[in-house]
Amino acid sequence: MNIIVAVDKNWAIGKNNKLLVSIPSDMKFFRSTTTGKVVVMGRKTLESFPNGLPLKNRTNIVLTSNPDYQVKDAIVCHTVEEVLEKVKEYNSEDVYVIGGDSVYRQFLPYCEVAHVTKIDHAFEADAWFPDLDKMPEWKVTADSDEQTYFDLEFQFLKYERKA
Questions:
Q1: pTM of the full structure
Q2: Which of 3, 75, 143, 148 sits 20 to 30 Å CA-CA off 87?
Q3: Total structural domains in the chain?
């Protein structure tokens, strides 16, 4: 399984259930990477999308503890184990965990690859991703040149779990 996330220099990912910043090339990378694939998210992440609707052209799996929660065009699961069972139906290389912070933390142990857009700026935040640079089992295996969006510098990094 994969994780895809945009983080600031402190590994922050959001505030008030919103992304810290919207960078067009990061959004394009997210779209091109996940289209046609399976995306796993928490309920609040789903509800942060336009009109609270699942992402188009993807299989959406939503994790929620609410047993009555339903959403059109998405698979709803209620435990991490249930999600892990469901994703066995797909090629694990085609499964992307897309947030939020508690979902990232719960699924990180099951992921082999993390696609991280690292933004060289510290934002005010209330949600964070685990700092992969401090986890010896993860290493950067690919990186892009530094890019700039207005005054923000960022780069795309690929982390892989060491065998």
A1: 0.97
A2: 143
A3: 1
Rg of the chain (C-alpha set)? 15
Which residues, in sequence order, are CB contacts of 28 under 8 Å at separation 6+?
A: none
Report the amino acid identity of residue 163.
A
Q: Each residue of 101-136: pLDDT tens digit? A: 999 999 999 999 999 999 999 999 999 999 999 999
Structure tokens at 113: 């690859």
Please report, for the domain that includes residue 150, its CATH number: 3.40.430.10
Q: Which domain holds residue 100?
A: 2-161
Q: What are the distances in angstroms from CA 104 to CA 73, 82, 114, 127?
A: 22, 16, 10, 11
To which residue do tokens 């339903």 refer? 70
